[in-house]
Amino acid sequence: MVFVRTTPPRPVDVTTVFPELAPLARPAIRLHPRPGSPSVGESSVGGPLLWPAEEPWPHCEASHLHVDSGFRQSPDDVRLMRRMQARRHRDHHGRGGMTPGEAALKERNAMRRAERFAAGPPPADCPVPMLPVAQLFLRDIPLLRPPGQADLLQVLWCPYDHDPDHKPSTALFWRSAAEVVDILAIPPEPYEVNDDGYLPEPCVLAPEAITEYPNSLDLGPQLRLMLEDWNRWQAAGADVDSSYADWPRDFYDIHLADAPGWKAGGWPPWGRTDPNPRYCTVCEVQMVPLLTIASFEWDGGEGHSWAPCEEQAAAKAGGHCCGQSPSRPTKVAVGSTDNMQIYICPASPEHPHTDLIQ
Question: Sorted alphabetically, which SUPFAM superfamilies does this protein's record hold (predicted)?
């Protein structure tokens, strides 16, 4: 099914008020993930990967000694819990227990869990199968700059936090889709997940090209002072609510700068820290944003101005629909419901990538 999501026009054309920002415009593609059943031949978040049967599935080789198994859940348990929550939300009166199918699945999960614990937890240094996070085809996300003849990016992560930043470690794979003939049917899954927010819900995508401007923290002192000049906004005839008179820079950051949500390219969503440029460990070139993995598609309150036109009513109403938060379709949560930014080297995408929580 093809669906469309459209970002509402920004309340102000920022380059009319501040022509100085025009050279800083960057292209970005909002992915707009929404729950669905993507196939291996589609771009997706949390969906199945077009993975060659002859290629070993990636495993995290780091030690997971700090992981407390007593408070974790298997991927199957997380999926069952989500399915039950969605069904309960669909039942407007909140009635009903488990269906026979859910009860049978819960019993099977419990038996498997008992068998695993009887055998003892896996060693802390046991390699852990990584989980699919995103699959992006160049035909859908033309901002990608793949190496050679590659036309597909696959992103996976370890389902456990890693020191020193307490975030999942990530792995990137570039490949040519046409070269994948025999597809791996059943990828291995981890024993358990550190947090249910590390198991993305399968989502289809509705990519949308937009133009972004940098967060005010990425601007020089002079530009930041201009953003804070309320008289400049008024002189340009900008239709800005007078409640922002004392904080016009906040209006810029909330409504006009970098878009929230899952996206390719664009500008980083600073806020948790000041700007922290990343440099390639091979050639020392400053790295550029490749992918933003977001906990939310838009912020609550005034931030819902970024909610797609097709979902503005749901965004303003808040709450849940069929067990889903409209602004958190992937059920991913990184950091304290923050964003993970993946960076690559613009000179060579094959150089080691890096990531950062914001």
Answer: Hypothetical protein YwqG
From the candidate CATH numbers 1.20.120.1080, 3.30.420.270, 2.30.320.10, 3.30.70.20, the one assigned to the domain spanning 14-67+124-357: 2.30.320.10
Question: To which H or E segment does residue 355 belong?
Answer: strand 354-357
Please state the pTM of the whole predicted model. 0.89
CA 86 to each of CA 18, 52, 337: distance values in angstroms, whole numbers, following the listed order: 46, 33, 21
Residue 208 and residue 141 in contact, taking contact as beta carbons nearer than 8 Å: no
CA dist., res. 234 & res. 11, Å (int) = 14
For the chain, the domains span 14-67+124-357
Instruction: Yes or no: say if 282 and 351 are a contact pair by the CB < 8 Å rule.
Output: yes
Strand-strand pairing, 208-212 and 26-30: antiparallel
The pLDDT tens digits for 194-246 are: 778 999 999 999 999 999 999 999 999 999 999 999 999 988 777 788 889 99
Amino acid letter, residue 180:
V
What angle separates helix 100-119 from helix 75-90, to the nearest 10 degrees? 160
3-state helix, strand, coil in the chain (%, to 5): 25, 20, 55
